[in-house]
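Hi, here's the filled form for the chain we discussed.

Project: internal
Contact: R.S.
Residues: 98
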Amino acid sequence: MNLNILKMIEYPKQGIISKPVLSHNKNEVTLFCMAGGSSMGEHTSTKSGFVYVLEGNGIFNLKGKKIKMLPGTFIFMNKNDLHSLHAKLNTSFLLSLK
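And the returned structure, exactly as it came back:
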């Protein structure tokens, strides 16, 4: 598989677009594109994983700690960690879960 993830980025006027990138051997990778001003409320996952920010500016709240979402930011999450997100500007990231 050979993809140019940056060419897959497209921002909605509002809200969030998610695009599956890979699903193989219990690995799931998804591209998320969040319009500036959009949010994902607090939630958990039954899988551990990471977020890798590609573009934008936002805040990732992980277990009460605010982490700046800027290009190049890598955020690891254990399963069942409570987290939420807010995009200040259009923001895209990869989410990998296993």
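Let me know if anything looks off before we file it.
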